Amino acid sequence: QKEVEQNSGPLSVPEGAIASLNCTYSDRVSQSFFWYRQYSGKSPELIMSIYSNGDKEDGRFTAQLNKASQYVSLLIRDSQPSDSATYLCAVSRDNQGGKLIFGQGTELSVKP
Amino acid sequence: NAGVTQTPKFQVLKTGQSMTLQCAQDMNHNSMYWYRQDPGMGLRLIYYSASEGTTDKGEVPNGYNVSRLNKREFSLRLESAAPSQTSVYFCASSERVPDEKLFFGSGTQLSVL
To answer: For chain A: N or C, fewer Cβ within 10 A?
Structure first.
């Protein structure tokens, strides 16, 4: 079992819809959770971080964390074609010195 | 702002050749990292340096060495390249450990024939 798992996609949604991206992790001691966005041929960039159970909203993005279920998700409201990218879930165990474990990424395609 | 600068952007090696990937950051960050990215595998940590003068192994360190030359620079060396090391390599930095808000360089596409 991979430490961090994501559906590789592609996930296709129409413009204006809500895109829902999911991630599960296996290590219960994981403390910090991140979503990075990576456009094709580019480097990853951080879009959301979440540390405690519940929802965290930033503009059109909402991260959701459920530590009991070992599940973290990213919702993108009013999806735009510019949101088309690969979304990487990353998890950190603080006692590991801040090293990140990444999932394999979910490719999102937003159709006009 | 340059941020994190990696060189070269592309490289083709023959099996057994050696090379060094260079990375420099101008954000005065303490921590620096080398990741590799393979299709369907996500990013995997090769080595990291929590602060100047220290280096530690990540998930996939075999076949690589690193040097934290100073606070700005962190290099990755392949002593004897193998086809399994064909990948995209990303250098990243962060302000401190633990601090997982990574800033990535633009990447190096390496092919080993």
So the answer is: N
Task: Answer whether B3's CB lies under 8 Å from B69's CB.
Answer: no
pLDDT digits (tens, 9 = 90+) for B57-104: 998 999 999 999 899 999 999 999 999 999 999 999 988 655 568 899
Q: Which of A36, A98, A101 is facing B98, going by the closest CB pair? A: A98
Residue for token digits 């393979």? B38
B107, two tokens? 């990447």
**Alpha-carbon distances, residue A47 vs A3, A57, A83, B102 (angstroms):** 21, 11, 11, 11
What length does chain A have? Answer: 112
Nearest CA in chain A to B34: A99
Distance CA A64, CA A81 (A): 23
The beta-carbon neighbor of B100 closest among A8, A43, A100 is A100
Cross-chain Cβ contact B90/A43 below 8 Å: yes
